[in-house]
């Protein structure tokens, strides 16, 4: 019995500590990348799209042939790799935020309505969620971007219109449990309007839950943008997107594998940072069902 | 049970109809599919000829009913690029995607479930920590990048596996490793959390108290209940592996459905794209419906609830 009780007590304390260190590491890393993206023009040593065909495929600093002006080398068009990596953070974070604004607005509104009103509203919205989940995301996004004309705006709109499901599922569940709480019943009794109850009372009570979904979804969007750009149907060249850089470096992976290793590592670090931060938030604020 | 089954099947059918309408409608996203087929440099007369030839001049509802009617009889139209039936092209490619998807799914299950159980038995033990590292890294590494790096390391540097194509079974090794690594984290997490919940219940404590060996406690009592959330997630994951292999297929130059869809998009072969989206969506609906039914069979409590 003694063993049982220590086993039961250990996880919660440990999980919280680990969650907090995770959130700390993730948050710091994320803050650094956000700062790099914000101050890209000051930090980048060169213009990220300026080509110099006389200096193509220069290797990064750990190689013998490297030159000091191009710390991380140059790509197949002689563009400075470090500058492209720095500006690439803007694309990843920008698309991540843009998509979340669209998908969050759709998903949270639908989830609130479904969870609060129930009945046929809930049935219709739940059906929309089920339908959305059965669509193959990558394929539909590829097709929509290809047909709608590849541009940053199309990409953000398409992904925003596709990725609202997790927001809807989570806010729906949260609204369902809040709807019967006393303070909401009280507000209804004093005749508060539905809009006020929904957006000024219920919504602020879900802040923590929504923040966790935001972090999960930002990571998801960043990976999707990279995959779509890699397939040539995301961000258009010469914009420096990490996914696009991996795709452009692909032809030279035999002799210059660092061309794909560097942007890939940048992607991993960013997604890792967002995930660690989100996981930490989830542990601190209590469990969220995905 | 019967009312649960009929309700569930009705929803599945409605989803199928909606999804088919959506994949049909996708074609009109560009505005005019005739211009998309003729290309941006095409003349107005060409677009007009295409419009008549493909029946784009008819009302949308008629076009949809015509398309879905033929689809029900197994006719998914003609490929614009190859000028052969879409079903024929898809038939040639579907094997690769199914093989890749199912093998990756099995590999992921075989690794994720035991690892999840072991992690749950000793939370914060060393197995749990290794599992956590695998999960966190698996969710952060983009699979197409992992695939490329694996090609560089194991294909180019060490020459252990072929770097592209699936003419031999060795061609499947890297794609399967990469795809299953993508699926492992979520499967493992849900097994772990399901197990932790179940291990804390009274009936498991009672089974332990009566002196049942631990492996029997797990296999007879705990796993059966922990597996319930896993069934739903496994169906979702299998669906995602089948439809998400599009990027992996292009990295490893495997001629599967995903690569076909991508190539067809690049050459504006819209009937093929539509058909693939439809097939993958329907597959997902079938898988999740089967999972729900299986869950209802495994857990009688669910039948009343739904």
From TrEMBL, chain A:
Name under which the protein is recorded: ABC transporter permease
Top-level taxonomic group: Bacteria
GO biological process: transmembrane transport
One GO cellular component term noted in the UniProt record for this chain: plasma membrane
InterPro entries the UniProt entry points to: BP-dependent_transpt_permease, MetI-like, MetI-like_sf, OppC_N
Record flagged with keyword Transmembrane helix: yes
ABC transmembrane type-1 domain residues: 89-278
Protein location: Cell membrane
Family: Belongs to the binding-protein-dependent transport system permease family.
UniProt membrane topology term: Multi-pass membrane protein
PANTHER family the UniProt entry points to: OLIGOPEPTIDE TRANSPORT SYSTEM PERMEASE PROTEIN APPC, PEPTIDE ABC TRANSPORTER PERMEASE PROTEIN
Pfam families (alphabetical): BPD_transp_1, OppC_N
Keyword line: Cell membrane, Membrane, Transmembrane, Transmembrane helix, Transport
Bilayer-spanning residue ranges: 21-44, 91-117, 137-163, 210-235, 255-277
UniProtKB/TrEMBL annotation, chain B:
Major place of residence: membrane
Protein name (record): ABC transporter permease
Species of origin: Aliishimia ponticola
Subcellular location: Cell membrane
GO cellular component, one term: plasma membrane
Membrane disposition: Multi-pass membrane protein
Keyword terms, alphabetized: Cell membrane, Membrane, Transmembrane, Transmembrane helix, Transport
A GO molecular-function descriptor: dipeptide transmembrane transporter activity
TM spans (from-to): 94-118, 130-157, 169-185, 226-252, 272-298
Pfam families: BPD_transp_1, BPD_transp_1_N
The keyword Transport appears for this protein: yes
Alphabetized PANTHER family for the sequence: DIPEPTIDE TRANSPORT SYSTEM PERMEASE PROTEIN DPPB-RELATED
Secreted as UniProt keyword: no
Family to which the UniProt record says this protein belongs: Belongs to the binding-protein-dependent transport system permease family.
Record-annotated ABC transmembrane type-1 domain positions: 94-291
């Amino acid at each position: 019995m003694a063993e049982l009780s220590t086993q039961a007590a250990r996880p919660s304390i440990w999980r919280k500590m680990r969650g907090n260190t995770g959130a700390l590491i993730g948050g710091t890393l994320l803050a650094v990348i956000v700062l790099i993206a914000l101050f890209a023009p000051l930090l980048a040593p060169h213009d990220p799209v300026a080509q110099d065909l006389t200096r193509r495929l220069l290797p990064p600093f750990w190689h013998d042939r490297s030159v000091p002006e191009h710390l991380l080398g140059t790509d197949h068009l002689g563009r400075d790799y470090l500058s492209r990596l720095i500006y690439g953070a803007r694309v990843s974070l920008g698309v991540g935020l843009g998509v979340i604004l669209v998908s969050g607005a759709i998903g949270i509104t639908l989830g609130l309505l479904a969870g609060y009103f129930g009945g046929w509203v809930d049935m219709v919205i739940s059906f929309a969620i089920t339908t959305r989940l059965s669509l193959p995301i990558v394929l539909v996004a590829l097709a929509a971007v290809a047909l709608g004309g590849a541009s940053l705006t199309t990409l953000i709109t398409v992904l925003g219109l596709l990725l609202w499901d997790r927001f809807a599922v989570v806010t729906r569940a949260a609204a369902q449990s809040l709807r019967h709480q006393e303070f909401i019943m009280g507000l209804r009794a004093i005749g508060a309007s539905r809009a006020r109850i929904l957006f000024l009372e219920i919504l602020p009570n879900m802040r923590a839950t929504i923040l966790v979904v935001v972090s999960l979804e930002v990571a998801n969007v960043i990976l999707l943008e990279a995959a779509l750009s890699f397939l040539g149907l995301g961000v258009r060249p010469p914009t420096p997107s990490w996914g696009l850089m991996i795709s452009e470096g692909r032809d030279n992976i035999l002799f210059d594998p660092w061309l794909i290793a560097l942007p890939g590592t940048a992607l991993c670090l960013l997604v890792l940072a967002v995930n660690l931060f989100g996981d930490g938030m989830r542990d601190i604020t209590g469990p969220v069902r995905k | 049970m019967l009312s649960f089954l009929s309700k569930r099947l009705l929803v599945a059918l409605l989803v199928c109809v909606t999804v088919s309408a959506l994949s049909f409608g996708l074609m009109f996203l560009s505005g005019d599919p005739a211009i998309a087929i003729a290309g941006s440099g095409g003349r107005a007369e060409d677009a007009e000829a295409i419009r008549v030839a493909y029946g784009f001049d008819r009302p949308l509802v008629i076009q949809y009913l015509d398309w879905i009617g033929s689809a029900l009889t197994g006719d998914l139209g003609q490929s614009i690029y190859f000028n052969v039936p879409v079903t024929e092209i898809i038939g040639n490619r579907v094997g690769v995607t199914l093989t890749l998807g199912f093998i990756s799914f099995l590999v992921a299950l075989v690794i994720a479930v035991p690892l999840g159980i072991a992690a749950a038995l000793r939370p914060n033990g060393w197995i749990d920590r290794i599992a956590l590292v695998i999960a966190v890294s698996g969710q952060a590494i983009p699979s197409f990048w992992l695939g490329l790096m694996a090609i560089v390391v194991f294909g180019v540097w060490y020459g252990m596996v072929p770097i592209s194509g699936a003419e031999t079974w060795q061609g499947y090794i890297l794609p399967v490793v990469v795809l299953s690594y993508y699926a492992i984290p979520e499967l493992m997490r849900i097994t772990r959390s399901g197990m932790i919940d179940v291990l804390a219940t009274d009936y498991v404590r009672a089974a332990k108290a009566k002196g049942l060996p631990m492996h029997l406690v797990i296999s007879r009592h705990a796993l059966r209940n922990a597996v319930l959330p896993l069934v739903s997630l496994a169906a979702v994951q299998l669906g995602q592996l089948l439809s998400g292999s599009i990027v992996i297929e292009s990295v490893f130059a495997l001629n599967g459905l995903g690569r076909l869809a991508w190539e067809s998009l690049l050459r504006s072969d819209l009937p093929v794209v539509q058909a693939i989206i439809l097939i993958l969506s329907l597959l997902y609906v079938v898988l999740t419906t089967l999972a729900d039914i299986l869950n209802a069979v495994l857990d009688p409590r669910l039948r009343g609830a739904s």
